Amino acid sequence: MKKSAAIFVAVAMAACGITGCQPKKKEISNAKVTQQKSDAYDSAIKECFDAMYSLGGGDTFYSYMYPDAALDAMKSSGEYDELTAHFNEGQEKSLYDGKKYTFGGITEAKELSEKQTDGVKSYFVNLSAPFIALKEEDFTINDGYEVKYKYLADGQDAGEESVIVVSLNNEGWKIITH
User: Fold this and answer.
1) pLDDT tens for each residue of 75-87
2) Cα 59 from Cα 75, distance rounded (Å)
3) Percentage of the chain surpassing pLDDT 70?
4) How far apart are CA 61 and CA 25, in angstroms?
5) Domain boundaries in the chain?
6) Strand ranges (DSSP E) for 76-171?
7) Nearest of 107, 119, 178 to residue 144 by alpha carbon
8) Which pTM value belongs to this model?
9) Are 48 and 172 within 8 A, CB to CB?
């Protein structure tokens, strides 16, 4: 009886391996930033959104969030690896609600005012402060927009978000989420 039970278990395990009953492995994205230097801010927003809603998107996400000088300072101090690992671990825990989120497209975009542009520079100074001392004069905003976009869950409208996207210095697009 023990021998037949052992054979049954072995056959069942083999059948599950063949038929796909194995636990699903989480796919890790090896996303690299490709749209950051693009002329089109909408493709940069989509790429950042995709990084936020995929596993392993921490590198891409942070490249859109921080000025390059702050990223370099984080990497030099060793804090960057910890931040991206924390982000990626958080994504592993939060992304599996059974829905697939996708970028749905831009619904509204307007150029930033001078006051908003000054606010963005101040934001980047404060954001970078824990890693490097920067001044507002260190930033040149070549282009900037306040953008609303929709996103989908399993192909159905799921909501709308607002972001600010700026072409910063010669670094490409940076995105400020609300």
Assistant:
1) 999 999 999 999 9
2) 11
3) 78
4) 23
5) 39-177
6) 101-111, 141-153, 156-168
7) 119
8) 0.77
9) no
